[in-house]
Amino acid sequence: MAREFKVGDTFRHVRECDKYRPLYYAGASGDFNPIHIDKEVGMMAGLGGNILQGLCTMAWAVEAAVNFVGDPGRITRAKVRFSKPVMVDDTITYEGRVASTEGGKLVMEISAKNQKGEEVLKNAVVEARVG
Amino acid sequence: MPIDQRHIGKKYGPTRYEVGLEKMREFAYAVGGGVPTSSFGASAPSGLNPLLFDEQVAKDSPYGKPIAFPTFPVTFAMAPFGQAVTDPELGINLLMLVHGEQEFELFDAIHPGDVMTTTGTVTQIYEKAGKDFVVVVTESRNQKGKLVVRGTWTAVIRQG
Fold this sequence. Notes:
Number of domains of chain B: 2
CATH architecture of the domain at 10-18 and 53-129 in chain A: Roll
Oligomer: heterodimer
Largest interface: A-B, 39 and 38 residues
Largest sheet of chain B: 5 strands, antiparallel
Number of strands of chain A: 5
Number of strands of chain B: 5
Radius of gyration of chain A: 16 Å
Structural class of chain B: alpha+beta
Shape of chain A: elongated
Number of helices of chain A: 4
Number of helices of chain B: 4
């Protein structure tokens, strides 16, 4: 896979948090915190309903990078700040940009916004080994 | 009430976890927009990288075996973080807790059959803008003793 990555290259990824996604992600990941799978508990916690696991929002940012790079085994680092909860029926758009390609390391900065344009992640960075 | 900083340095674990192909597959399906099961006719969601679940494709790749999705380590590396935030000595109200930040550093691929041992340490406790922050750093090693994943987990607790 002799592919060239250049600073400024961009990629885009869209995921919807369907009604059952927090349950599916709970089953797959083991994160059954009631605020993620029980609407009433989410309301009680002042969150306006159950919220998607932040780690799933993060996984989608990583997925955006995996799809761009083409090989999940090349991902070496991922870091995010969770700035706003993702609710059921939210659609999250990820837009990535290659910030650096130095030293065989691809640094991708990724923004993640809901359908209202609000950032659900801040300072999201995914790094991959290239070459 | 602020969380007592004397808990900085407290350790949790080790916890042991054996990585299985079906669990890896379920995780990849759930992230990829599918249903995390092999039952009821469920199949891989479209566009999912086959290295994550297809043994034959993986066999013909440089990896030889399926590889776990990069954030699959949440299935085993979260344990010490979970123990810390539910530790009665720290006294965190779980209803007020949200996940603030997360980082994973990945040093090697994870394959079915790997046995991961994870330990965690509370590295920071601080208060900022009326919220409490607790940071736990986890390290997960495989059966060969190699450090495979370092996770940095930041919990934010809204003060009631």
